[in-house]
Amino acid sequence: MKRLYPSESATFRPAGVRGNTTAYDGGAFFYRAPTVEAVVIPLENGTLAKGWLVETWTADENVLNHTTVDGNGNVLDVELRTASDSYNVFAEDPLKGAQTVVSGPGAGNAQSPAGWLGTAAQATINISGNNVSAYLDADANNAPDSAGLQ
Known about the structure:
The chain is mostly beta strands and 150 residues long. The chain has strands at residues 13-18, 21-25, 30-42, 48-58, 64-70, 75-80, 86-90, 99-103, 126-128, 133-135.
């Protein structure tokens, strides 16, 4: 925690255990309780060692990290899991201007106050949001392909 969040001085207390994963009370700094999961780490020499996968998701900056730690507490890898998507959108409608590129997820901005994507499950061939419902139409019949229906 000190490597990723050196200014955060929260005391982490176990908040629950489920299988190989322990959740910690990280306070208001985190969007969701940080978790530590026991994992097996493949080493360069082909052997396996016990390690930990630490998941942290900050509240203010919305940064999700997966950090791999070895059995001695050494940080092996930090993987930023926060999406930095962008979308081509029409600011008003296609007849009133060209598309512009905006960053996602868009919650709270003028173009999409509720976010670009809806809260329902999304599929790669059938995506919906508050501004659009998009789907795969490989046969050009102006209807969602059957695999794209949810």
